[in-house]
Structure formats: C-alpha cells, structure tokens
Amino acid sequence: xxxxxxxxxxxxxxxxxxxxxxxxxxxxxxxxxxxxxxxxxxxxxxxxxxxxxxxxxxxxxxxxxxxxxxxxxxxxxxxxxxxxxxxxxxxxxxxxxxxxxxxxxxxxxxxxxxxxxxxxxxxxxxxxxxxxxxxxxxxxxxxxxxxxxxxxxxxxxxxxxxxxxxxxxxxxxxxxxxxxxxxxxxxxxxxxxxxxxxxxxxxxxxxxxxxxxxxxxxxxxxxxxxxxxxxxxxxxxxxxxxxxxxxxxxxxxxxxxxxxxxxxxxxxxxxxxxxxxxxxxxxxxxxxxxxxxxxxxxxxxxxxxxxxxxxxxxxxxxxxxxxxxxxxxxxxxxxxxxxxxxxxxxxxxxxxxxxxxxxxxxxxxxxxxxxxxxxxxxxxxxxxxxxxxxxxxxxxxxxxxxxxxxxxxxxxxxxxxxxxxxxxxxxxxxxxxxxxxxxxxxxxxxxxxxxxxxxxxxxxxxxxxxxxxxxxxxxxxxxxxxxxxxxxxxxxxxxxxxxxxxxxxxxxxxxxxxxxxxxxxxxxxxxxxxxxxxxxxxxxxxxxxxx
Length: 547
Ligand code: AMP
What we know:
Blueprint: H1 12-23, E1 27-31, E2 37-41, H2 42-58, E3 66-70, H3 75-86, E4 90-93, H4 100-110, E5 112-117, H5 122-128, E6 137-140, E7 157-158, H6 159-164, E8 180-185, E9 195-199, H7 200-211, E10 223-226, H8 238-245, E11 248-251, H9 258-267, E12 272-275, H10 277-289, E13 299-302, H11 309-319, E14 322-328, E15 335-338, H12 343-346, H13 350-357, E16 362-363, E17 368-372, E18 387-392, E19 410-411, E20 417-427, E21 433-438, E22 443-445, E23 448-450, H14 452-460, E24 465-475, E25 479-488, H15 496-502, E26 515-518, H16 532-539, H17 542-546
Parallel strand pairs: 1-11, 3-4, 3-5, 4-8, 5-6, 6-7, 10-11, 10-12, 12-13, 13-14, 25-26
Antiparallel strand pairs: 1-2, 8-9, 14-15, 15-16, 17-18, 18-20, 19-20, 20-21, 22-23, 24-25
Helix pairs in contact: 1-2, 1-3, 1-8, 2-3, 7-8, 9-10
Adenosine monophosphate binds next to strand 14, strand 20 and strand 21.
C-alpha cells in the first residue's frame, strides 16, 4: 500500500521559489569583477534567474544541454545556477585554474553548447574559443559599459543585455527529479578528469543534509560567505543551502586575499564561511599581522584537504571561531562527514575534544561509510586499523559521465555497490573517521604504512613553517621513506635538524622523516590541494641522490 502524500519532484527550482516567497527581502552581496560591491535580494535573484531562463531558451538551449560557466562566486553565477538547472539544462561549472588544454578537453567532453564567463577570464576564453568543438555561444557576464572593446571571439554577447531583453515571466518546468542538473569534473591530478553528473534529486537531498545543525548548520540568521569556489563542487552546496534556509549570501568574487576577505567578513557581518586550508592561511596571516579580531564570524567549514590542527587551534582559541572540519569529494556532491561533537563528548577535557574535532568527522545522514582491508573485508571501528574508505548514498556517484572508466563501484556480500574513495582512513567507536592518507600518497616503509597527513600536521605546528608536504622518497633499504618538503614563513628561520627534532615525542621514531627539503612554494592544483605527485617527480629520488 502506498502512502497518500503529494508526489512533488525534488527540483532545484523549488529552492529558489521558496527563497523568493519566504525570504524575498534577504540580501545577496557580491564583490564584482568590475570592482564594485553589488547588493540584491532573493526576490530580485528569482526574477533575474527567470529572465536568464528565457534568455537561454532564446539562445536555443534545450533540456539536457550543457551550459558552461567560467566564473567567480557572484550573483550572476548564482542566477545561472538556477536559470540553467531550473529550466532543465545542465550547468557545467568549469574550473578556470586548469590549464587551457584541460579546459578544452573538458568542454569538448561535456559537449558544452554555451559558455558564460567573467571578464577576468577573457584571455583564457580567447585562447580556447577557436579550439572548442561544440560551444556556439559566448556570453560575458557583465554590462555593456564593461564589455571588451575588441575581442578575437566573434559575436560576443553581453549578459546584462540578454537579461534586459528577456521577460521575467517564466514558469519553472516540472520534470523527473532524477534528471541531470549539473556537471563537475574531478581534479584529475593523474589522467584526464572525469565528469560527475548530479541530479536534481541528489542536489536537493544533499542540500537538506548539509544545512542540518550537525553538518554545516545554516539558518535564516546566518550571513554565509563561501570562499570555496562555485566552480569547485558547487561551492560545497552552499548556494543551494542558503536559498533553502534564507541565509544572507556574501560572494567574494575574485578577492580571495586576506585583506579583501577580512573586510567582507566584517562589513557584511558574516557568521559562517567555508574553504580549503590554503585560503585560511592567507586570511589568518593578514588578521595576525594587523592584530585584528572577527566580530561576527563564529564558524568556518574547512575541508578539501586535511585541516592542520595548528590552524584549527588558532581559529578556535585565538579568534573564537569554531572550525567544522569536513570531508568529501566531487563524487559525493561533496559532503560526506563533518566533525561535530556528540553530546557525550561535549564534557570531555579540551585536548580530547580537540583531538576529536581534528578528525574528518562522522557521516551525515544519507552517507554510509566503511573501511576495508586489502582483501575487501570490512575492518573494525577501533580508531586504529586503517583501510580504504568506501561510501554509498543518494548523492554519491553511481558512474562517471558517459560511463568513463567503467563501473567504479565495488559490490559487497549483499550485492550493494560501494564507491571506493581512494582515501585511507580509520573509524573510531563513536563513528568519527580520520583520513590518514590518499591511497596514492601513502608512504610504504619496509612494508609498513606511514600516513603523510600526520607528518604534515606536526610540521605545520612549528612556528616557522608556512606549508608542509610529506612525500614518499625512494629508499635503497626501506623502498620508501618520508621526505618533508617545507615552505618557511616569511623572515622565519629553521634548520633541517631543528625540524626533525620537532618530531621527537610527537610520533613513533621510525615515522620521523629522513630529510627536509626547503622550497619557495609547494605547487597547488586547481582546487587548492598540494600537488604531491609533482613533488614526487621532483624529489622522489632525493634520498638516493644524497646517499
Ligand atoms: P575533490 O573531489 O577535488 O574535492 O577531492 C576529494 C579528495 O580531497 C578526497 O578524496 C580527499 O582525499 C581530499 N579531502 C577532502 N576533504 C578532506 C579533509 N577534510 N581531510 C583530508 N582530505 C580531504
């Protein structure tokens, strides 16, 4: 017997309709590429998204067509989030930090029909426009006054002209909630990136989950500034969650330096932010150098790579900003776990509590996880044994776009499919997961695994260290040994021996890195993660060469 409740599909447009009807006056603030601070509301967002939906139809975009963006976090990008997906087309957020060749590969693979881009990216678009095979329409996300005087791209369209020429009367269509809504490509540090195609259903369910109090905890009282780009897994879902909850949204545009971010945090009374550890480093450096405080910001979500405990401590103890350590992947929409304390843990002593919060956290409802050994058997949740982390849930990938790479899932004894994350983790008895490594970054010394994240976290706690990566270096006797690659803080001094001595008592002696290499900068990928494969290419033979 079926229940007798309404069958309303979970569609992304419903988030916008809700925001317009119930939070119409709520503000959306954007620092724009043009240099101004722009203010609008959810009411206006909804009207302009409908205009753009009409404009897309006028450009010949049909249901299922891919519409690409190369854009910062801003109100026009948000309008496209709703206009494209809401009208039944697929929003493909391209990552502008990728090499032009990769952008071409991805746009061709996705068969994008149109490309909307911020002025910043005109040189990139000019470099790829004659190479991409399927993009017919190029739109600059600006007004007439800021349109480039001359461009190599023929028939360049102006976003504001398209909006002005289109009616704001548009009825969001209803369709199957499993229809594709948006497309993101994985970072692809090795091999070509693969597409992850989200559905309306997966997106709306993910939105419910991340807004919950023990996840990112978004409310109508929050002012949310997503530093994480809208071109990286939909800014972790915050553009959707803000609409669902009626939160104020503050978009930093291209201003991701410490000063620009800090000013927005203060002027716009930001309460919640989110980003990768490398961004926070710049912000904390600025706040520290200028002896500033955060007057309203009380929570920040840190994920994308492991949050160094030293950074967490600074945020919490020095600035009274609670760090929500979160873990996820493009293939998971992206949120999987958040390190929110349980009731039984709140009364624990501060160092114990802190050690729990420094883990990647426990599964949000909707995501199940397990760790497995080399034989595929599930390992116990004892916080000690580590194995490959596998996940399943309604916002976890079933297969890559166009079936690329075959079936990625691994079947368990019951025939259920699990997605192998490629991360190595422990899970403790309370269900808190801790990543010890990416499986391809694990250091195998004499057959035993050494987790590089622990070693990096210790180095990061040293006052002279700005950034640290630990990589596997080939070793004549032990196959691999840890090698520490370090960027010093400006004007700070520290020697190899001092750094190695810093490990004493903090880790098993045999885990101590064999050597330290000081570098000017550690290469970062398009989503702010350290490119350890690049470091391995460069320094992988360092110990052999030295001996
Ligand atoms: P991406 O799909 O680009 O978001 O990358 C996902 C990968 O980033 C994961 O599989 C992890 O290896 C890594 N990652 C994400 N969040 C964390 C975290 N909090 N701690 C450690 N690694 C993380």
